[in-house]
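ok new one. same drill as before - structure tokens go in, u give me an amino acid for every spot. 244 of them this time. try not to just spam alanines like last time pls lmao
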């Protein structure tokens, strides 16, 4: 059974008197343990697709099953409950709470769930060690580098033991060296811990490490492997990549 199974998914928005169609009949399966990138230019529908997979939004039509659970037309509270149980998020801007320490930022999703504090502390310390932050638990975000902040975001995504981690342009605000370190870290978590990662990215470095590339253009899935190969070659030739 696939972890993510979308069939014939459409998404349209009403903007005044205009209907904007973001997704046009998307079919997508993501198996447990995948390390997959969704790539596409700005306006292609990749963010909308991740929002639906992440239970941040509902499809206008089609079917979505997450880990055997039909999502359907769940209301806001039901979607929030599913997100909290099954999905972790990594954002390009980190989205850390500046007044909280590294430990408190990592623990935050568990506090929302009402998990026991002693158990949460142990889990937070374990995932902090997994991402190389054991010595920074009492630091505040403004005392960390960009790469360290992204590590906090990764640890926060993992602390609840999610079925799926969604990463929205996780290397967009990092330099090349730090981006490579973050990609290597997530690859290790995928390999050693079995964490399933699904990225939205146009970074050729991310695509070159992905085990599968799904390309989307004008709301339709196209040949991802071919486009990824072109983008990686463009990077090696010193050319510009697709816009985000």
């Amino acid at each position: 059974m696939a972890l993510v199974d979308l069939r014939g998914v459409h998404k349209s928005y009403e903007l005044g008197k205009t209907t904007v169609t973001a997704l046009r009949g998307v079919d997508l399966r993501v198996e447990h343990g995948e390390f997959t990138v969704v790539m596409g230019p700005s306006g292609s529908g990749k963010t909308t697709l991740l929002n639906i997979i992440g239970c941040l939004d509902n499809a206008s039509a089609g079917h979505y099953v997450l880990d055997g659970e039909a999502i359907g037309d769940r209301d806001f509270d039901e979607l929030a409950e599913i997100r909290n149980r099954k999905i972790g998020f990594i954002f390009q801007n980190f989205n850390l709470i500046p007044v909280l320490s590294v430990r408190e930022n990592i623990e935050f999703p568990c506090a929302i769930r009402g998990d026991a504090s002693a158990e949460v502390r142990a889990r937070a310390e374990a995932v902090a060690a997994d991402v190389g932050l054991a010595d920074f638990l009492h630091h505040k975000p403004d005392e960390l580098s960009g790469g360290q902040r992204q590590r906090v975001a990764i640890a926060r995504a993992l602390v609840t033991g999610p079925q799926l981690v969604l990463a929205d342009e996780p290397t967009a605000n990092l330099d090349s060296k730090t981006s490579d370190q973050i990609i290597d870290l997530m690859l290790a978590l995928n390999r050693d811990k079995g964490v399933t990662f699904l990225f939205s990215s146009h970074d050729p470095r991310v695509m070159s490490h992905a085990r599968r590339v799904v390309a989307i253009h004008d709301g339709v899935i196209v040949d991802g492997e071919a486009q990824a190969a072109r983008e990686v070659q463009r990077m090696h030739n010193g050319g510009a990549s697709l816009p985000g």
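The first strand starts at residue 4 and ends at 15. and btw The chain has one domain: 33-56+87-236.
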